[in-house]
Write a structure and sequence with these properties.
Elements: H1 2-22, H2 34-49, H3 72-84, H4 88-112, H5 117-129, H6 131-137, H7 142-160, H8 165-178, H9 184-198, H10 200-203, H11 207-220, H12 222-230, H13 234-240, H14 251-261, H15 268-271, H16 274-288, H17 292-296, H18 316-330, H19 332-344, H20 347-350, H21 365-384, H22 389-420, H23 427-439, E1 445-449, H24 459-466, H25 471-476, E2 490-493, E3 496-499, E4 520-524, E5 532-534, E6 536-541, E7 547-553, E8 558-559
Parallel strand pairs: 1-3, 1-4
Antiparallel strand pairs: 2-3, 4-7, 5-8, 6-7
Helix pairs in contact: 1-4, 1-5, 2-3, 2-24, 3-4, 4-5, 4-6, 4-7, 5-21, 7-8, 8-11, 9-19, 18-19, 18-21, 19-21, 21-22, 23-24
Length: 568
């Protein structure tokens, strides 16, 4: 009978998770961001042609914007679009359903770690309402999918210590997680190494299953090895690496100044050099992920900023450390695993100059949820057994605070968040596509000028997605030929032409502005609009009146470039 009530509670939590992840899923967030649009259109292309936007047949890795996306999320979205149609809702469905099912996964993991049914239920409940998990389940965030797969994989690993066949399932899920998100390639092997060390004695009791799982894992990872050896997987990593020679890493310049001050002496090179600066930046970036401000208030990512909330609720600032103490006393092995998990999780993000990063560090959410649930239960029991009545009553006040703040987040997310973050989520591109669809009949050519590293990146993918341009026709016309991290020239499909002004590497003018054709509509982002003196026929502005995209009729255009050429 007790088990029956446990399952009822778990199903209720699942229902809450479903609601928080599916309510107005196609509308909130407003508009897809660039990676979502790329995933959605490549999935659509796979359904229609069996090829991606570059014409590659059922790829094991998708070139996309030259960031080489892992395949799992795209194929899941392809399956969703096949059944539900080519819509924003269908694109986000795999993330939402797996994010909802994650409550069962974390419950199973909690039970395998020896936590009580009540505490395991509480852990599942916290995951259902956790801001980090909600936000990443309502968009195609590959790390959100990978996180659920990993939680399930670890639960299966622990179950495999008793029933070895689960080790095979654990291996398959870990491989899937690695093929879902790039950062898993660093994090999962490290976590697996720790797991093997912790449970080596039990694993040796089932050597045959262990060897079989290892061989299957190596076989399934072979395509990944090919991609690594070709350098494809490293393109994105190099682009965001703290070791890259990027202008945004100012300390490099500072160290050069120190070196000159010390007359470039041999000993100064051991103190003032790029390697030491990089190490300091990595350590600094790593520690930032544990700052209360990052976790509970301002994580720095405008796309996911909901009111004054962070990735965890304010009250968890107290329940998490309390939970660590309680879990360490009662379940030392579970504490060791969760602590290791927490320590390893930010590593991938720390090697990036974009720190602290809520995407690459999302794996932190699982151990923190565990600690928070232990803290809540511990506080509840402690208050319950206090002699003074006001202390016993205060536990209901604690529950009231938890519910109030959680409901406040939900209110902010569904009521205020869509308006405040519309243009952070590239809602401008949805408006752009809608306008161009109506204006297409007036012009024989529409020229879009992407901004290398600016606010008008990859407009082509949004047109393909929102116009539902037939993939077969797109490939027949040449498909994608240029993209981020590889701009060199121009390309076009139908009446749309995309041309860069300059090149990322050396800023040479491959496509001079004075070649813009007459009788065309010119579409430019904010960083390029200074080249146009007049001729604007339409503009898209954000909620504070800033112009995000300008539309110019070339027949009425006054063009000002560095050479002083005036077309009017």
């Amino acid at each position: 009978m007790a088990n029956k009530y446990i399952y009822i509670r778990l199903l209720l939590i699942f229902a809450i998770a479903l609601f928080l992840r599916f309510y107005r899923l196609g509308e909130i967030p407003i508009g897809l961001y660039s990676d979502e649009a790329a995933i959605g259109y490549n999935a659509y292309s796979i359904i229609k042609t069996g090829r991606d936007e570059f014409g590659i047949y059922f790829p094991s890795i998708f070139k996309s914007f030259n960031d080489f996306k892992p395949p799992v999320a795209i194929y899941l979205v392809a399956a969703s679009e096949f059944f539900f149609g080519f819509t924003d809702w269908a694109v986000r469905f795999p993330s939402a359903i797996l994010g909802s099912l994650g409550v069962f996964s974390i419950y199973a993991l909690a039970r395998q770690l020896g936590l009580s049914k009540t505490l395991s239920i509480l852990t599942a409940g916290l995951m259902a309402i956790n801001p980090w998990n909600i936000l990443f389940s309502r968009s195609v965030m590959e790390v959100g999918i990978a996180n659920v797969l990993l939680i399930t994989a670890i639960a299966c690993f622990l179950a495999g210590l008793k029933k070895p066949i689960f080790l095979l399932l654990s291996t398959l899920l870990m491989i899937l997680s690695i093929y879902t998100y790039h950062a898993s390639l660093l994090f999962i092997p490290l976590l697996l190494f720790v797991l093997v060390l912790c449970y080596l004695k039990k694993l040796l009791e089932c050597k045959k299953w262990l060897i079989l799982s290892g061989l299957i894992g190596l076989f399934l990872l072979f395509p990944l090895y090919k991609n690594l050896s070709s350098g494809e997987l490293l393109v994105r990593a190099k682009g965001i690496s703290v070791f890259s020679n990027l202008p945004s890493i100012n300390p490099y310049d500072k160290e050069t100044g120190y070196l000159l001050t010390d007359d470039n002496k041999w000993w100064a090179r051991f103190i003032h050099n790029r390697r030491l600066v990089s190490i300091n930046l990595i350590i600094d970036g790593y520690l930032k992920h544990f700052a209360p401000q990052f976790l509970f208030y301002d994580h720095g990512n405008a796309m996911f900023k909901v009111g004054g909330f962070g990735m965890f609720y304010f009250w968890e600032l107290f329940t998490i450390p309390f939970g660590i103490l309680i879990l360490a006393r009662k379940k030392p092995r579970a504490t060791a695993l969760m602590t290791t998990w927490l320590i390893l999780a930010p590593l991938s993000s720390s090697f990036s100059f974009l720190t602290p990063g809520i995407v690459r560090s999302m794996y932190m959410s699982t151990p923190l949820i565990f600690f928070s649930s232990c803290g809540i239960q511990g506080l509840w029991i402690w208050l319950k057994h206090r002699g003074k009545s006001w202390l016993r009553i205060s536990r209901w006040f604690l529950l009231f605070i938890i519910l109030l703040i959680s409901l406040s987040f939900i209110h902010f997310y569904f009521s205020h968040y869509p308006k405040e973050t519309k243009y952070n989520w590239d809602g401008k591109y949805w408006e752009m596509a809608r306008y161009l669809e109506g204006a297409a009949a007036k012009y024989h050519k529409i020229v879009l000028i992407p901004e290398a590293g600016g606010d008008f990146n990859e407009p082509y993918i949004f047109l393909l997605y929102y116009l539902k341009f037939p993939p077969r026709v797109y490939l027949e016309q040449g498909g994608t030929r240029i993209c981020r991290y590889g701009h060199n020239g121009r390309f076009n499909f139908d009446i749309y032409e995309f041309r860069t002004i300059g090149c990322i590497e050396n800023e040479q003018d491959y496509n001079p502005l004075d070649e813009l054709p007459r009788g065309s509509l010119i579409v430019a982002g904010p960083n390029m609009m200074s080249n146009f003196d007049r001729g604007m026929v339409y503009k898209i502005v954000d909620n504070v009146g800033k112009t995000l995209i300008g539309f110019y009729d070339s027949n009425n255009l006054t063009l000002l470039n560095n050479d002083g050429i005036n077309l009017k």
